[in-house]
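INFO worker-7 received task bundle
INFO bundle size: 2
INFO processing item 0
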Amino acid sequence: MKYNLVGKIIFNKDITPNKEKVIEFIKQAENDILKKITDLEEINFTSEYKIENKNSIQVIICTKKKSAHIIFYRIRKSLAEYLGKNLHIGISSLEIKFLKIVFPLEKLPQEDISIPFVNVIEFDKNEKTCAIELEKIDKNFITKGNVERIIKRIREKIDHSYYEGKKEYHKVLYESPKKNIKIDIDPTIEMVNRNWIAPASTKGKWIYWAPATNIFNAMEKIVLEELLIPLGFNEMKNSNIVSGEEIWLKTGHLEGMPMEIYYVAEPKTRNTKEWEYFIDLVKITQEIPYDEFKKMVQLEPLKGLAYAQCPSIYWALKGKTITDDSFPILLFERTTNSFRYESGGRHGIERVDEFHRIEVVFIGEPNDLLDLQKRFMEKYKKIFNEILEIEWRMASVTPFYMQQAGDIFKEDIEEGQLGTVDYEAWLPYRGSREETEWLEFQNFSIIGEKYIKAFNLKNQKNKLIWSGCTGIGLERWVAVFLAQHGFNIEDWPDKFKKYLDKMPKELKFF
């Protein structure tokens, strides 16, 4: 990597009477920094200092490997001590007027790339490098690591352009016996026709009348009695509202899926008098005066509805040192709905913007979680094969980059243990088993230290701890069950009917 920096040191008083001394002290401060660099000969460090006016000096620094902008700001501390002690001169500020960085690439972009804060971005096809130029960047921008994140983001965008549109790694680990399924019905359409469900007042959401709710409750009961209670999980309750700053910045949701989040705005005030004009407009026009409404709500700090329940659980544990006898931590939450803006991807009850889910979270030592995973898989297999009697398969969908991560986790990882395992079911109304996309109706993930590090969780003995989750989406369980078994309760599996032996009356309308 190559760095070329043009900066300015601004002093709090006239330095011209002491300009030679000031330059001398800058060189001493520079040496203080350079003598700490072990590979000094390799970085090709050069510098130049010029008096610009009576209270500032222009600085030019060129380096290889080591960041010129970091060295520039580290010089400040030593320089301030020298100037203050010997000349009683202070440093008002440091400015970087221009910074050019040339860095190597593994591959060149396939399309134009734009990036915030970068004035110029150029690619050298022969050298396989990228050159970026930034102007007028301040101390906070440097010390917060934003320059390094710009370089990382450019490489991410290049990688994404190569993998975009490719299927993620998918390998079937288990297939259930094939079922002799004779029905061919879209469960959502039939549920609407039978008045089991109705569209809600906003897109991608449903109202579930008594028949559908009874099936949901039966599924919940199966999960509790056959899975979570036997495995020792404890129920908790969560909040529906999530902080963008406290949670989504740490989990990566604002980087990965900001376009899927439902955002929440709080009122600026609860004072009725201040809302009076808005209320007057509503009463008179019987319309929502959006221009006035925007004045009355606050968008900062950023908040939204829960995308998933687990991040809030990790946030509640942030910075805690947890006693050894608390592990493994086994929790589940079923009262908070999840919200994801699906837009054109919505379909029926299986792809919705609001869904009901039992979120299961586990935290503990790696071997404990890998053992827990085996027990989960055994119990899921029993539920799907013996109680729901559906046709399904289990597949490792660990992304390509996780396949190389075994050494990071310091364990011998078998296929399907690290990352995510999806449970997929055939929906006959979509077409044949071989030619249609199966529905992912369940998953199980071990995510290692991702959230442990993000929220600084520790255990008493400072051992390595991992976490994982398995989200049980009730809409999808119901969609799979009805798509394969139909709506006649007499045709439903006997073991399932132990949890739901009769259905309530359907609503009827003239």
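INFO item 0 finished
INFO processing item 1
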Amino acid sequence: MPERMSLRQLDYFVTAAEAGTMTGAAQRLYVSQSAVSAGIGELEHQLGVQLLIRAKAKGLTLTTAGRLFLPEARALLARSEELRAGMREVGQTTAGRLVVGCFTTLAPFLLPRLLEEFPAACPDVTLDFLEGSLNELQHLLREGRCELALLYGVDIEPGIVFDRLYSTVPHVLLPREHPLAGREVVRLADLADHDMIMLDVPPSRRYFSEVLADAGVSPVVRHRTESFELVRSLVARGAGYSLLIQRPVPDVSYEGRAVRMRPIADDVAPLPVGLARPSGTLPTRRAAAFASFCRAVFAGPPGAEGGGAAEAGGPQGHVAKLPA
């Protein structure tokens, strides 16, 4: 009968792949380097493939087989932890570590509240997070590095399930002395002759470009930046206007200079915000609890305490589709 691989072997392999060296893995696991090396060697023998290339100067490198096996190994370890936690309380506990991804510009608006309030609702769950771009987060989900991710429902890739929490629309950000700052609402066509500061982060860049294009506006982009706060600071300095989704409570930049936020008069397609997860996988109980908590938190009207991150909402449940 073929020898079965063990969870210990999987743990050695995943830790070594993440640490980059056998020594680093041994230090993390509090075992000897020889134990890690032997365990991974036995695992490779049982699988019939080499998972890691050992080089003294370069450390460890994943082979093609190793790259394919790594997310599967992580998933098996996560599932074993879920089973262990479930057996401790006869299947009734959500105890364990939950890693949630979050889109970079959403993180300051969503994560602090969730990190503070979710542990009060589920004290046995240790909540951690990772930040990243849309592509990075979906990669992390497929790799098993996080179970859920908070992101915009744009360009969702195959193999990822997106569940909308709320929808929002952009606003115009203007310098205090801008000619349009005195208006209650701003028509996009009126921005055509003014310089723009573009938040150059996908999917924001494409979304804003499409919003302007739908209004017949080809933006005059004066500056591009990946920094949300640099956009606001440049606008406050009078360098141009911008379109943004998230709205900080203070109408000032980091420098303390005033900006003006104005609703858009045009009918703009809403942008959904929601939770993404890998398809074809069974969510852990702690992931399901977090998803339910998020739905409760963001169920309120836009701008209210329940939906404080949203600027404008509605019943839309579709995923926004942008041209390739």
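INFO item 1 finished
INFO post-check item 1: The longest strand covers residues 160-168.
INFO post-check item 1: The longest helix spans residues 64-88.
INFO worker-7 idle
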